[in-house]
Amino acid sequence: MPEEIIIETGGLGYVCFISNNTYDNLPKPGEEVSLLTYFHVTENNQQLFAFSEITERELFMMLIGVSGIGPKTAIVLLSAVSPDEFKRRLIASEVGMLTALPGIGPKTARRIIVELKDKFVKLSKDELPKEELDVTPQVSDAYDALLALGFQMKDIKNAISKASNQSEKLSTEELIKEALAELR
After folding, report:
1. Angle at 60 between CA 58 and CA 63, to 5 degrees
2. Which molecular function GO terms apply here (predicted)?
3. Which domains does the chain have, with CATH numbers?
4. What percentage of the chain has pLDDT greater than the value 70?
5. CA atoms within 13 A on the CB side of 53
6. Average pLDDT of the chain?
7. Does the first or last residue of the chain, that is N or C, have fewer Cβ atoms within 10 Å of its Cβ?
8. How far apart are CA 138 and CA 128, in angstroms?
9. What residues have CB less than 8 Å from 152, skipping those under 6 apart?
10. Mind giving me the DSSP string for 15-27?
């Protein structure tokens, strides 16, 4: 898959670097497309990076904030897995996923995990509706476990709600088991 595309607008063509995820979401050549961009300026260069989804752009911005990760490396990381999968693996501290990518050694992989893991865990909890944060520790732990497994928040909320309605005294393990049955 190409790592760059040319977007024409106003009679000018702009070279944009993209991930595989963005490439997969592009329409046929010649059709209109709307992309989110990041303009990277250095002393010797100017580069434009394009994204089809806001979550991918946000993850890109977080990645380039990590010491030693430039925009090209961030695009390589985003091309390896989807943003949701990357987030799940990062929360699970899967160093192997990162070190398998070109240009990412063990030290850089650990730095990415250390610098971003807490942000993702905090973001995941911030996405929870406020009323859901004030529930039992079992429900809270089940939310965290299902988020770490990569499920979407709305799906988790529905599954846990159904599982909780069946019995209010479920342990965390039982709640996760019931929710997983709903999610599959």
Report:
1. 110
2. ATP binding; DNA binding; four-way junction helicase activity
3. 4-125 (1.10.150.20), 127-183 (1.10.8)
4. 89
5. 14
6. 83
7. C
8. 15
9. 84
10. EEE--HHHHHT--
Nearest by Cα to 111 from 91, 95, 89: 95
How far are the Cα atoms of 4, 7, 102, 171 from residue 32, in angstroms, in the given order? 17, 10, 33, 51
* Digit-coded pLDDT (tens) for 124-149: 554 544 344 335 777 777 877 887 77
Task: Quote the tokens at residue 101.
Answer: 């990518």
Q: 76 is written with which tokens?
A: 């390589």
Other CB atoms within a 10 A radius of the CB of residue 32 amount to 5
When pLDDT is averaged across residues 60-84 and rounded to a whole number, the result is 89
- Mean per-residue pLDDT for 150-173? 78
